[in-house]
User: What shape does this take?
Amino acid sequence: MSLSGQKTTNLDAVVVGAGFSGLYMLYRLREAGFSTRVYEAGGDVGGVWYWNRYPGARCDSDSVHYCYTFSDELLQEWTWSSRYPEQPEILRYLNFVADKFNLRPDIQFNTRVKSAHYDEESSRWQIETEDGARVSAKYFITGVGCISTANIPKVKGLETFQGQWYHTGRWPHEKVDFTGKRVGVVGTGSSGVQSIPVIAQQAGHLTVFQRTPQYTVPARNHPYDPEFVEKTKANYPEIKQQLRESFGGLLVDSQEKSALEDTPEQRDRVYEAAWEKGGFGFAFSYTDLTLDEEANKTAADFVRAKIREIVKDPETVEKLSPTYYYGTKRPILDTNYYETYNRDNVSLVDVRKTPIVEITPTGLRTTEGEYELDVLVFATGYDGMTGTLFNIDIRSKDGVPLKEKWADGAETRTYLGIATAGFPNLFMITGPESPSVLSNMPVSIEQHVEWISDCIEYLRDHGIETIEPKVEAEEAWSRHCREVADATLYVKTDSWYTGANIAGKARRFPIYLGGVGPYRHICDEVAAKGYEGFSLSMCN
Ligand code: NA7
Assistant: This one.
């Protein structure tokens, strides 16, 4: 019994989140015989694909690679319609997975985990949900996603707005009708770039409020032809292996050389071919685009030239032309993004030059003037990487909140991006300092889930009660992670990767850039050496 008189449920594992991570974690743990419950804040499965229902939302890794590969049967049964399907299709896929493996009975929806405190005496996590239920679990596993806590700017006057306003990551289930309306979109990251061309087709007038212009490359989405699907399904064992060994969890044509080894004419041909093919291949055209300033400039110049070629109005070209290092914010894929600015019903406001002052009952006011709006869309992103973890009051064996442990310093401080010292039996799927958001997420998720479930089975089979990183192993990993990042241009750009989009957030680069394949080998070696770098304590 808990102090409140409520009965405490005892489980082997509690998993937070029923997206790609949580669904597979549940499947693996249940298969291994562990009693497991998943808590999910949303009303159904899907994670990011449950919440992100904005117009134009779609994946930007090829769908045949943006999926689970753990079940051959699943790979054969599910057929993707196109290269980058829209959100409803991806959500249908995750529902299909949940039904196929009968996962729903162990998922509690509409339930947010409020706190998870480690109790050293019982060697268990004491978990409380927002509705007051208490659960005790040996293992606490977060599958909360890296970008799931919406960043809604604290603009004066939002509560006075008489129109409708939405955040792309908290989109309503009902269709939002923009027909004939005066719409404002704030933000031009992936969500803005995907939604702007679609909204523009319906809106009476669309005003885009842009703070940082972006490099974006055509997605070139297209339906898959049946022959391609058949061939892919036949080759999945090989594809799966290639994805797992690859740098980014993607299969792209990349040239294993510096951009500076080619002549300007050769480079143009390479970039043009990648532009025509569409997708993330452009970002991998050469090996040093995010390493070397001069190499980077060649890709940046190419995209800026494309903007000049596509967009008719010179003033808009000027506003749309990015100046940061190409690829150091999340690369974006689009369908007719730059072209959209040639429409008569679309205008672009540079809110870096003329900042947003307030939202009024009838619109949005910048230092330059007021824009009358019926609908306002915030495509303003997320408190990424740590935001959602910090929303849960996670406390160490010494009662230290995770948020406090990670408050200061140049590094987030994890071991392998999976665990953190002081928090025994806590596992983070695609946690900070793992490849996570700079990889094709399902590939990284599968790797973590398999590593974690293998680890938990090992603990059980060897009579081990707890596992926890040694401080020195954690320090070495965090340092390695930072050193790899410091050798790149990523750290020189303000982005949600570095936390610069959230006021007061520690500025770091909590993503491992050593590559998905090499990272997998590091993790496997740690396990093969009996979980080297972890302290293991035996059951009494
Ligand atoms: P992003 O990529 O963080 O983009 C958010 C955009 O919103 C970006 O253009 C921001 O400008 C802009 N922003 C944020 N706050 C403000 C304020 N206060 N005023 C004006 N503009 C603002 O989020 P997305 O949802 O597009 O994409 C998230 C990830 O989802 C994406 O990277 C993929 O992994 C999928 P900034 O660049 O910070 O100047």
